[in-house]
Amino acid sequence: MTAGSDSVLELLPMVFAAPNDALAGARRVLDTDPPPLHASVAHQVIGIWQRDFGDLRIALDHLRRARDLAARAESAEREADVLGTLGVALVHAGRTRQGLAAFERGVLRGTGHTRARVLYRRAYVWWVLGHHREALEDVRRAIPVLRQAKDVIWTARALTLRATVHLALGSVERADADFTAAERLWDTTGQEHDKADAVESRGLAAFRSGDIPAALRLLDEAQERYAKLGTPSFMLNIRRCEVLMAAGLAREALAEADAAIGVLDGIGGQSTRKAELLLVAARAARLAGDPHTAIARAALAVRLFAAQRRTWWETHARLVLIEARVAAGRRSGRLVADAAAVADRLAAFGAPAAPEASLLAGRIALSLGWRTDAERHLAVAARSRHTGPPHARMTGWAAQALRARAAGSSRGVLEACRRGLDVLDDHRMTLGASELRARATEQGAELAALAQRASLACGGPRRLLMWSERWRATVLSAPPTRPPADPALVRSLTAFREIAARAEAARMEGRPVPALEREQRRLEREVRSRTLHMRGDSPGDGDRFDVGRLLARLGETRLVELAVLDGRVQVLLCGQGRVRRFEAGLLTEAEAEAEHVQAGLRRLAHPGAEGRLPVVEAAGRRLEELLLGPAAAYLGPGPVVVVPPARLHRVPWALLPSLRKRVLSVSPSASSWLRARETEPPPGGRHVLVRGPGLATGGAEVPEVADRYGRPTVLEHDEARVPRVLEELDGAALAHIAAHGTFRADSPLFSALRMADGPLIVHDFERLDRSPYRIILSSCDTARLASVGADELLGLVTALLPLGTAGVVASSAPVNDAAVVPLMLALHKGLATGLSLAEALRDARAAVPCDAVHQATGWAFTAFGAA
Questions:
Q1: Do 497 and 629 lie in a common domain?
Q2: Both 705 and 796 in a single domain?
Q3: Residue 339 domain-assigned (yes or no)
Q4: What does the pLDDT look like over 795-846, one tens digit per residue?
Q5: Do 689 and 680 contact (CB within 8 A), yes or no?
Q6: Residue 803 and residue 846 in one domain
Q7: Partner of 586 at 20 to 30 A CA spacing, among 1, 354, 360, 680?
Q8: Global confidence as pTM
Q9: Distance of CA 863 to the CA centre of its chain
Q10: Where are the alpha helices (DSSP H) in 192-267?
Q11: Do residues 836 and 718 share a domain?
Q12: pLDDT tens digits along 648-707
């Protein structure tokens, strides 16, 4: 780096084009004993680098030296420029008053082009402080001057900033116009850091407009760009956390925010960013059901924002603090007043969160019995129900539903809930990934519960059934978006499979595998990230649930749908042209008993545990009392379909005495059962049998089953590789897979069946054009599912049902491999005579030996669907 004036000044734009190169160049300049003007530039460059990517204390030291050197050089323009940079650093350090004073001096010292740059920086600081109107005024003054000077870089920065301020004020269309104009300018420059910032900003715009997949894709792209530059971006962490929370991934958002706080503290970074990270961590903790962590994070954020004189941000932190205190069980008149004051301040700021605060005030007032106060606050919140992004409209309809309930209008409650869930339905179908669709339903849980209570009060069992179905297993209403042509996803899946297979082989040999496990987790994140980027291409489900259609299709079958109201199980017995309601036990007691049963079945999978059989059978009787109650006496002699809530998915229903000898199937929803019942089998009737490695019996049933079906496709040994297995499964009439199953509670869509080349995971099944019409999974834990969202399930079985599978047989517990063989042979014997899966499984249970191991094996398997 030469000491020429032009070459030294070129270091300043380099900070956001090649940050590390600029830092090295500035240090070389200082090594040459430069004149004050050049030294001022070099110290300013180092100060900017430390301010944005390093230690803020070091940044302030360099920027003050840059200011003093500019004064020694008697360059008013140079001094003004440095004062603008110093002002930003002081505000980020929490020294707001000193920072604003530096800007005042900078605006006075600078002229023309330089003053416009100082005004842009002050506009940025006003945005940081939450003074949006002041930010717009400064950037409005700066942009024409920057354009006149043909300063492309600073004009693009100013447009990006103005767009970001518009977003904070809820003006998405204006923001989009400015982002588009800025992006055209960035394309003409080499400012790589600024380009990454532009991509990040477009991700924020996509998020504000409700397009979560696009937001995740753009933010991940920005993260890749920052990584190539070797520069951290805490603002990106904050924005990713916001999108993750909107997607229902609150625990992931909390982990990311806490990790970013740790990095920021480690480098002595900006206190302004720390306060913002604490706020987002508080929101994530509250949404994740951890109110005490939320209170701690939010209280610290409030203190930091107050010290930084950032009223806009402090007010948002106070909102989260009140929400967390309410979630922790606190209710008081003081909290009503605090929430109302926060709502007024947010409304004065023009903040989109204002309706949330009014809804919160109304909720607390209702819980205290303050009807007049509640109506006032809820009426304000309800104004947002017709305009704005989905979350704002949902907030408005929730407020309207609470108003109607307080007024005693069940019809008004149901109408508001219907409208609110319609908004969420439309939003949910923009999401391509089944995981995001499932988690998004949590936002409608309150509306669904309000509607169920109101329907029971005014409409009886039929209406309760309708509302129970309205928000149950909605992720199964349409197939997830499949990306079969995405080569990057295919590469990631192949690499994941190879690493997972190597890790499993190493574990079996007793070798440590930390490096392989780290790489496997990295590839899992990569696969998951790409699937979350997919935008939904399915229209909303216009085929609403029809009780009359269900009753007509049932015939002699009885469908038992279990709804949960205020913690108690309500049994809706459908059949003989009517719906009857019975009240059963408490959900928490049923869940606890189901866990005891699962433990018993695990013990019975091993010989020598026969003494546990009476204990398990007694637990089955208690489960029947808790889950069916008096309805058990009215089931009639025919087949039974059980539709449990997601939290009861692990119940082995065949263990219940009144269901033990019946033709029994389970479905995530009545709507799902209807779709399965009306699904036609594929032409051709292909049968596919797959035998994976490592089974204790070697999948001994497969050769005998193959003899029963003539000439089926049999994949075993090296032929049982994932690409070939998927190819054969696509569109098959019947598939039988004998392979070790693993369930991933932490990441259910990575639950897997072990093939010769590694795991066959749920994401693989989602790439099928049509999954097999019937599929039998003969190994352990293949029916285990994760309960997410409002009432959704994720796992192997639920991945198959929306893709054309009408019936599944799978196990919800560990089973004895040897005892599985006769059960599967008996099952296929029944299927060969034309029985359904449920009929064949009933007969197979009766045909196996009566010892405890075989009985437990039969109970562990369940028929899902209607084929």
A1: no
A2: yes
A3: yes
A4: 677 778 777 889 999 988 888 888 999 999 999 999 999 999 999 999 999 9
A5: no
A6: yes
A7: 360
A8: 0.70
A9: 29
A10: 192-208, 212-229, 234-246, 250-267
A11: yes
A12: 888 999 999 999 999 999 998 898 899 889 888 988 889 999 998 887 777 788 988 888
